[in-house]
Write a structure and sequence with these properties.
Layout lengths: L4 H26 L4 H15 L49 H31 L4 H34 L8 H21 L2
């Protein structure tokens, strides 16, 4: 596919401009110019080539922001403007964190929900395939109740972690770990009784 003449001219003009700016960068480095001046010139080259790039620029386009400025060659931070998203439940507070942290929080929420589903499925399986007894009923109902509670705990923790990320506060501790461990130990004892008792 051939490019139209006007488009070709515009592309060549932009490339020639970038070529001249890059030559200026080389001359500045050979002359031992200050690093800040070199970076400023590199930013101009990056802006000239930006329409041809599929990735973010390698140098910042504005002045340095101090110690928190990303190192040259790193990807710029993702913000609400570059990666907008719909509000979460409950209503958002604070500012949006890096979307990668939000996605990690959502993956953790889904993992907790899978655990809840497995617990409820285990209770249904015991109730369906094990001979009826008091130990079977208690174990099956306990697993189903634990699954329901774990699903609710997943929602509450997802909300708490999301709120902590948006307000830049410490993440909540994993207090549900001993609860789940104790409940599964009790369920295991119930399964032992189900297998041992006739």
């Amino acid at each position: 596919m051939k490019m139209e003449q006007e488009a070709t001219t515009a592309v060549l003009n932009r490339l020639r401009r970038a070529q001249g700016q890059l030559a200026g960068v080389i001359a500045m480095m050979e002359a031992g110019r200050d690093c800040k001046d070199v970076v400023t010139q590199l930013a101009a080259v990056s802006r000239a080539l930006r329409p041809f790039c599929l990735f973010p620029p390698l140098v910042p386009s504005g002045p340095a922001q101090g110690p928190g400025t990303p190192a040259h060659g790193s990807r710029p931070p993702m913000t609400r403007e570059t990666h907008p998203r719909q509000p979460d439940f409950p209503a958002e507070t604070g500012s949006d964190p890096d979307p990668r942290f939000t996605w990690a929080n959502e993956r953790t929420f889904l993992a907790w929900q899978r655990t809840a589903l497995a617990l409820m499925a285990g209770g249904v399986g015991i109730d369906t395939f094990v001979t009826r007894s008091l130990a079977r009923d208690v174990t099956a109902l306990g697993l189903i109740a634990l699954g329901i509670g774990w699903a609710l705990a997943a929602l509450l923790r997802w909300s708490a972690v999301g709120r902590a990320l948006r307000t830049h506060k410490p993440l909540p501790s994993f207090r549900a770990a001993p609860v789940l461990t104790g409940a599964l130990m009790l369920a295991g004892c119930g399964l032992v009784l189900v297998v041992a008792l006739p």
